[in-house]
């Protein structure tokens, strides 16, 4: 079975502070991992995927197979980063399993 | 391309009523799926399809039916609505075998 754990329901930081949203996964094979972002009452949008190894809106995420983690990081948070963030794993054919999400609030 | 289109955006039902949530995509994606989003629960997979004529159950399929007669469309049917089905429903699609999911704008359903 595949599982995604996001231990924090809410993360509150001040503008300019570093941000790390945690994601741990459970899967016996080689997973494909994603971060999705959902701004207030909008659709989910892809933020990052681990195979791309790119930085989007200043966010990065590194897959650590030893620790089975895929934490999302940004060195300096902006107010417009406030949103719900979901970590997701594809282990099987095409089905994505999502974590419960972390709400990021960036205060001025 | 319109991407993934969901209708309606909002719906209020009474307990016991039935309805169909529509989902269409114009990206020629083989894989389509329905999720429900509830506070504190994240997104949970209801049903999915890997191609026309093929559907399968996800994590929370009870009370919902799907069919996939064409590549483009993947409607979700509520047979007899219950208050527990009050939720936001998202349709999503992707190419089979990998790649990101593309989401629709969601349908906010309230069952009274």
Q: Any key phrases for this structure?
A:
heterodimer, A: 108 residues, mainly beta, 6-stranded mixed β-sheet, 3-stranded antiparallel β-sheet, 0% helix, globular, B: 112 residues, 4-stranded antiparallel β-sheet, 11 strands
In short:
The complex is a heterodimer of chains A (108) and B (112). Chain A contains no helices and 11 strands.
Question: Care to describe what's here?
Answer:
The complex is a heterodimer of chains A (108) and B (112). Chain A has strands at 3-5, 10-14, 19-21, 24-26, 32-38, 45-49, 60-61, 72-74, 83-90, 96-98, 102-107. Chain A is an all-beta fold and 108 residues long. In chain A, the strands form three sheets. In chain A, strands 2, 5, 6, 9, 10 and 11 form a six-stranded mixed sheet that branches. Chain A is globular and about 40 Å long. With 112 residues, chain B is an all-beta fold. In chain B, the strands form two sheets. In chain B, strands 2, 4, 5, 6, 9, 10 and 11 form a seven-stranded mixed sheet that branches. In chain B, strands 1-3-8-7 form a four-stranded antiparallel sheet, with no helix packed on it. Chain B is globular. Chains A and B meet through β6, β9 and β10 of A and β4, β5, β9 and β10 of B.
Poorly predicted tracts of residues of chain A: none
Rounded to an integer in angstroms, the radius of gyration calculated over CA atoms of chain A is 13 Å
Tell me the overall shape of chain A. Answer: globular
Order of H and E elements of chain A: EEEEEEEEEEE
Strand content of chain B: over 45%
> What share of residues of chain A is helical?
under 10%
Q: Oligomeric status of the shown chains? A: heterodimer
Order of helices and strands of chain B: EEEEEEEEEEE
Counting H and I runs of at least 4 residues, what is the number of helices of chain A? 0
Largest pleated sheet of chain B? 7 strands, mixed
Q: Compute the CA-based radius of gyration of chain B.
A: 13 Å
Largest interface: A-B, 22 and 25 residues
Overall morphology of chain B: globular
Low-confidence stretches of chain B: none
Average pLDDT figure of chain A? 91
Helical percent range of chain B? under 10%
Number of strands of chain A: 11
Number of helices of chain B: 0
- N- to C-terminal separation of chain B? 36 Å
| Overall SS class of chain B | mainly beta
